[in-house]
Amino acid sequence: MKPVYYLAVDIGASSGRHILASMDNGRMTIEEVYRFDNGMINDNGNKLWDVDSLFANIIEGMKKCKELGKIPVSMSIDTWAVDYVLLDDNDKCIGNVYGYRDERTDGMDEEVYKVISEKELYKRTGIQKQKFNTIYQLMSDKFIRPEQLKEAKTFIMLPDYFQFLLTGVKASEYTNATSTQLVNPETKQWDYELIDMLGINRNMFMELKQPGTILGELTDGIKKIVGYNTRVVMCASHDTASAVMAVPTVADNVLYLSSGTWSLMGTELLKARCDEKSQVCNFTNEGGYDYRFRYLKNIMGLWIIQSVRHEFEDRYTFEELCKEAEKTDYITSRIDVNNKCFLAPENMTEAIKSYCNNNDLIIPDTAGEIAAVVYKSLADSYADTVMQIEKNLDITYDAIYVIGGGANAGYLNQLTADSTGKTVVAGPAEATAIGNIMAQMIADSVFKNLKEARACVRDSFDIKRFEQKR
């Protein structure tokens, strides 16, 4: 029987990939068919996304499917959260597409709090304060490009924008929209009253759709370019929401760590926790598949080590950095990985050294020493977060499920097991793409529901276990 293929286009902040999936004797198989680099460009001090280049790479990856003779019956796109495109009344992009690390949001939190207090905003949305949240980006638009904001007829987040270019259908997907800090966790729709309070045009915002919604087929122009037609289906388009779908267990009350450029640690709840205790600990209640809430904390993740690696001119693979770090048991310095100085420094290595110097810590020098500081600091941050989650929810967890690219970081996973005292279950590494595909397969009746799809993931991919050594 000829395989049926599903295409996940998974675009992260540093790279993108096209993953084809099919079923073989009840197991999911995946194949990477195209990969490309990504990153913010610096334009006169502004950190921007080159959306035209990103879309060109989406098309190139789709063409690769044709070359391989593996035409997907459907496809979907996921990306990181919070960033967006403004469209005019001709559906053309207005102005720059800013990246979340741009400094234009500096001070915008205080402008928002002139309208609504930080405490009330959290109670209303349940979303963790991050200076780059969309609410602060839109407030920045009011100050630095008010005419463009006034001209805008449509607000559309990045995966929805790319799918609009493919299909001609504009729509907004729920999970990614929740990261804006403009969605009501009770109604699961835009908080129009809040939007009005902020003085933003409510008519820009489209009704939110659930993952699994079929947008339509490719436009005639795109069909001609890629050489075939396919359905475009909404996945959980916030990459973390897709990744969490692929946690390889059918158990409830699971603790997960989505480990990539960012580390997202949390659990799934059926109702958002917008209480003061959660706010003080800076937890967020992001929307998930099937209206589950991802009660989690954003932790600066492998972005730090990715930056360090580039600054050593990519002489080391990540595996080699881990091996070098393992040789440095004498390193005791720790950094606060969530300190704003690590968000977008000119030089990450120097930022780490400066932090250690300013805090009277031993200053790391070699690549291995710097990597050890980063990895050990991440593990300690994970341990602190586990304790906060368990205290806030009055639940004790036996294991942490590590999904995403960090599942391959054996050294970090062992440090995490040691620092938390929990069993670390690592894999699958391509969790985001797999979750993207799961939503498509559920929509296509391959699986009945999320639980059945997770059971398939558990049985289809290699999973490693790490136990506490000390």
Short description:
The chain contains 18 helices and 21 strands. The chain has 470 residues and is of the alpha/beta class.
Describe the structure.
InterPro entries: ATPase_NBD, Carb_kinase_FGGY, FGGY_C, FGGY_N, Rhamnulokinase. One of its GO terms (biological process) is rhamnose catabolic process. This is Rhamnulokinase. This protein folds into two domains: 235 residues, ATPase, nucleotide binding domain (Nucleotidyltransferase, domain 5); 178 residues, 2-Layer Sandwich (Nucleotidyltransferase, domain 5). The protein has 18 helices and 21 strands. The strands form six sheets. Strands 17-18-16-15-19-20-21 form a seven-stranded mixed sheet, sandwiched between helices. The longest helix has 27 residues. With 470 residues, the chain is an alpha/beta fold. The radius of gyration is 21 Å and the shape is globular. The chain starts with a strand and ends with a strand. Helix 12 runs antiparallel to helix 15, helix 13 packs across helix 15 and helix 15 packs across helix 16.
What order do the helices and strands come in, and which of them pair?
Blueprint: E1 5-11, E2 15-24, E3 27-37, E4 41-43, E5 46-48, H1 51-68, E6 72-78, E7 84-87, H2 108-113, H3 118-125, H4 134-144, H5 146-151, E8 154-157, H6 158-167, E9 172-173, H7 174-177, E10 183-184, E11 189-190, H8 192-197, E12 208-209, E13 214-217, H9 220-226, E14 231-233, H10 239-245, E15 255-259, E16 262-269, H11 276-280, E17 284-287, E18 293-300, H12 303-311, H13 318-326, H14 348-358, H15 367-393, E19 399-403, H16 410-420, E20 423-426, H17 431-443, H18 450-460, E21 464-466
Parallel strand pairs: 1-6, 6-14, 9-12, 15-19, 19-20
Antiparallel strand pairs: 1-2, 2-3, 4-5, 7-8, 10-11, 13-14, 15-16, 16-18, 17-18, 20-21
Helix pairs in contact: 10-17, 12-15, 13-15, 15-16, 17-18
Protein name: Rhamnulokinase
EC number: 2.7.1.5
Domain Carbohydrate kinase FGGY N-terminal: 5-245
